[in-house]
């Protein structure tokens, strides 16, 4: 399987237009499952298309196994069909007038693969993806999930060294998305292919990827394992973008006052943390501890206090919304908190769950 290196990639549309991708450098290891994660318009699909050869970078180099397939300075550009990469689009791009078998065999037919070998590969791939029984149907006769499997089968039949997936699950319902996530993980485990997967869905990225690259406005924010991205966000953007319920942010910049800021100062002092460089702090709702404490207990663990606004059961956990003198603070309890609207509750956090950021919104290491 192939490794991919992006060196100082820049992409802009028009001579004076803003850069869609700004100085992007990244290593994608062989057999890695990398997710490009970010909001719409951050440049993740453009990056994928440059790797595939459907977009030309304005500057920089792209290397596969150490050999350049794109180098703007040297005038090198390997055409897409010579890159041995498989691409699955968001809209599947199946031929409506061809049967499922012919769609899966399409790339092999273009390669002039001998008929016997082509049929064997097509049958094997369709069987693995559970679509062999639809071989003589047409795409319009299949559901969205089945069409997705056909698109994957067509790509896998070519045995690419790199698999590129552009939000391939976004058109599926919740149940089919779960099934296809499991299918993609199985394909990666069995084939060992290098996979680059574009998504704006953090849940997909966290459950599928071995490595996540978070992007924003054409710039790479952080590259790391799912645990790194979640537990050690490099900056405020990553901290606020990743998380099923948005992280609680407490602003501590000059002039900011209020009960939550006062509580944060107590927490920093309690843990012996220098407060001077801290401009803001993030506390994930699921890391927030709740309970009714005595005055002494609250002082010992630097607990804050607030009034419960609402408790929302989500099946296995409860979202607790707390009002702290006019400011909302959220917590997630994994056991029934036995709280109701109007109750008073204490909340506190452990040192390892504090995410502190400086005035440039970069992470402060504890």
TrEMBL record:
Residues 4-242 form the ABC transporter domain. Keywords: ATP-binding, Cell inner membrane, Cell membrane, Membrane, Nucleotide-binding, Transport. The keyword Nucleotide-binding applies. It comes from the Bacteria. InterPro entries: AAA+_ATPase (IPR003593), ABC_transporter-like_ATP-bd (IPR003439), ABC_transporter-like_CS (IPR017871), ABC_transpr_MalK/UgpC-like (IPR047641), Mo/tungstate-bd_C_term_dom (IPR008995), NA-bd_OB-fold (IPR012340), P-loop_NTPase (IPR027417), Transp-assoc_OB_typ2 (IPR013611). GO terms for molecular function: ATP binding. Coiled coil: none annotated. SUPFAM superfamilies: MOP-like, P-loop containing nucleoside triphosphate hydrolases. It is found in: Cell inner membrane. Signal peptide: none annotated. It is a peripheral membrane protein. PANTHER family: MALTODEXTRIN IMPORT ATP-BINDING PROTEIN MSMX, OSMOPROTECTIVE COMPOUNDS UPTAKE ATP-BINDING PROTEIN GGTA. Belongs to the ABC transporter superfamily. This is ABC transporter ATP-binding protein.
